[in-house]
Amino acid sequence: MKAIILALSLFTCISVQASSLVVGDSVNAISLQDQHDKVLSVTDKTRVVLFSRGMKGGDIIKGALESLPEEQRSKELVYVADISGMPSLIAKFVAVPQMQDLPFNIALDREGEPTKLWPGDKETATVIHLQQLKIINVTRVETSDALLEAIK
């Protein structure tokens, strides 16, 4: 009997952990430090979140934002990168210093907890459209051009 209860408990934990937010769900407002150690937030005023879990997704977002003139970057757009899978020494001494040279800010999720349920994978960039923190659309893109189309 104990084995059955344990197995059901593990199955429930795995199922809950594996689920991610979908259209209609709400994200929590979060505040994270960016690459310059300044606070960057996703709030009820945020309309678009660009989200990456891996280097490939980050490169897609970087390419799109670098090609977008600063005046066209909306104040309602926030780029969030989950860098929790990166070794901390690499993040501290290599990745974050390189990010400091970029012409845009990146909210860095160093722990992985605030964004653990956000939709996305390591191979794509995710565009999350919000209205008052409620997800109204999720698009995964594989190219910078596709990302630029998704945020129009």
Describe what this molecule looks like in 3D.
The chain has 152 residues and is α/β, with parallel strands linked by helices. 28% of the residues are buried. A hairpin with a 2-residue loop joins β6 and β7. It is 32% helix and 24% strand. The strands form two sheets. Strands 5-4-3-6-7 form a five-stranded mixed β-sheet. Strands 1-2 form a two-stranded antiparallel sheet. α2 packs across α4. The protein is built from four helices and seven strands; from the N terminus they run αβββαβαβββα. The chain is globular. The longest helix has 17 residues. The chain has a single domain, classed as Glutaredoxin, CATH 3.40.30.
Name the CATH superfamily assignment: Glutaredoxin
> What would the average pLDDT be, to the nearest integer?
89
User: What is the H/E order?
Assistant: HEEEHEHEEEH
CATH class descriptor name: Alpha Beta
Strand tally: 7
Largest sheet: 5 strands, mixed
Query: How would you describe the shape?
Result: globular
Content-based structural category: alpha/beta
Q: What is the CATH architecture annotation? A: 3-Layer(aba) Sandwich
Individual helix count:
4
Q: How are the strands of the largest sheet arranged?
A: 5-4-3-6-7
Residue share in helix: 25-40%
Indicate the low-confidence ranges by residue numbers. 1-17
* Proportion of strand residues: 15-25%
Q: What is the terminal separation in angstroms?
A: 56 Å
**How big is the Rg?**
17 Å
Domain count: the total is 1
What is the fold-level CATH name, i.e. the topology?
Answer: Glutaredoxin
